[in-house]
Amino acid sequence: MSLELFKEVEKRGHEQVVFFHYPEVGLKAIVGIHSTVLGPALGGCRMKLYPSEKEAIDDVLRLSEGMTYKNSVAGLDIGGGKACIIADHNLSAGRRELFLKFGECVRDLGGRYITAEDMGTGVKDIMTVREVCSFISGTSLEEGGGGDPSPWTAQGVFQGILASAERYYSSKDLKGKTVAIQGMGHVGVFLAELLTKAGAKLVVTDIDSRKLEAARQDFGAEVVEPGKIYDAECDIYSPCAVGQTINSDTIKRLKCKIIAGGANNQLTDDSMYKPILERKILYCPDFVINAGGVINCASELLPGGWSKSWTEAKVKNIYNTIHEVLERAERQSLFPEIVAVEIAKERIEQARQKKAEA
Ligand SMILES: NC(=O)c1ccc[n+]([C@@H]2O[C@H](COP(=O)([O-])OP(=O)(O)OC[C@H]3O[C@@H](n4cnc5c(N)ncnc54)[C@H](O)[C@@H]3O)[C@@H](O)[C@H]2O)c1
Questions:
Q1: Which residue, 29, 56, 267, 295, has most beta carbons within 10 Å?
Q2: Ligand 1: distance of its center to the CA of 310 in Å?
Q3: What is the longest distance spanned by two Cα atoms in the chain?
Q4: What is the pLDDT along the chain (358 residues), one digit of tens a residue?
């Protein structure tokens, strides 16, 4: 196991992987610090009963590496990390004790890793962590943090939609364009509002019929059943629900010219690159376009604390970054996701060289 783990860590380029084990509070946690070249490794803490330890380790390694690229391409002086706690996310008895201990673990890493909420954890858990450790992000406005990241994520997705529309249609005017949104949750609703104001028409879906009714009333959206969104006539498909919805079946059905949405891990895997390129669909890499949330978290780490204007400027810059990624992808005949990782790695390499010269 240890040899294989080192092989994986070497392949992905992690600096540090730490295992914490405190059975008295039921804590089994793994923290993956992929890179601190640009700054402390920021990434959320998941809480999940993984089917196997291998899957938990894989998740931490994969996600922490992804955070390095996401933070770098967003122009943040922040590295990439991720934590997972192997436990039932519904745990109630002893939850506080578990998160206090987790906080001590993060504290002992001395600021190399900064934690935040993620799947299975919430603001309350992070506030528990904060009682013993200051290396946290993602707190409420009342607590001096940046509050709900979703409006920022939606704003970033909107900027990415404007840039990709400009590349495809030579105009960022969305009047008369139809956007199909999958998922009317936190991100989807804020995005729908921005798109409606910009004059776009919406086709939306969700597994929750109440959210669909609200979308019909609030945005005059056409609503379709969840499975039908892939067949909707649209210019832009915006996945804002769950991951891996673009697969070998759905890619054949999509009628869009652009894929630009907030969901993480939108493609099943890199076998989707070829069909997307063949269909001449512009793909906005998910970790570039949905970085608004993490930008908002990073803003909390500024010396003077969270800044609205700083967050706004960085989120608006997603427009320029998507332009750069799509332009370079076209010029080099590469898939945009590959280009985005290249841009992220180049920035890290520059910072590494600068450090070495200093
Ligand atoms: N919230 C953020 O700031 C943020 C930041 C980065 C990435 N993301 C990603 O964006 C996506 C949406 O995040 P969110 O915060 O809006 O989540 P959310 O849970 O608030 O909303 C997701 C919505 O999708 C719906 N849904 C679930 N499965 C569906 C399906 N098969 N078909 C149609 N609808 C379905 C849910 O009912 C819900 O309304 C997630 O993939 C998340 O990881 C969110």
A1: 295
A2: 25
A3: 61
A4: 456 889 999 999 999 999 999 999 999 999 999 999 999 999 999 999 999 999 999 999 999 999 999 999 999 999 999 999 999 999 999 999 999 999 999 999 999 999 999 999 998 999 999 999 999 998 888 888 898 899 999 999 999 999 999 999 999 999 999 999 999 999 999 999 999 999 999 999 999 999 999 999 999 999 999 999 999 999 999 999 999 999 999 999 999 999 999 999 999 999 999 999 999 999 999 999 999 999 999 999 999 999 999 999 999 999 999 999 999 999 999 999 999 999 999 999 999 999 899 8
Q: State whether the beta carbon of 187 lies less than 6 angstroms from ligand 1.
A: yes
| Residue tagged 């190399």 (tokens) | 112
Taking the centre of ligand 1 as the mean of its atom positions, its distance from the CA of residue 206, in whole angstroms, is: 10
Q: What is the DSSP string of 133-184?
A: -S-B----TTTTS---SHHHHHHHHHHHHHHHHHHHHS----TT-EEEEE--
**Cβ-contact 81, 33 below 8 angstroms:** yes
- Residues carrying an active site annotation: 82
Q: Is the shortest distance between the CB of 265 and ligand 1 below 6 Å? A: no
Between CA 255 and CA 258, with CA 256 as vertex, the angle to 5 degrees is 160
Q: Are 85 and 29 in contact (CB under 8 A)?
A: yes
Closest ligand 1 atom, CA of 150? Answer: 3
Query: pTM of the predicted model, to two decimals?
Result: 0.95
Domains detected in the chain: 11-63+79-130 (3.40.50.10860), 150-292+318-345 (3.40.50.720)
Q: Is 226 in the pocket of ligand 1 (CB under 6 A)?
A: yes
Q: Which atom of ligand 1 is nearest to the CA of 245?
A: 31
Which ligand 1 atom minimizes the distance to the CA of 183?
Answer: 24
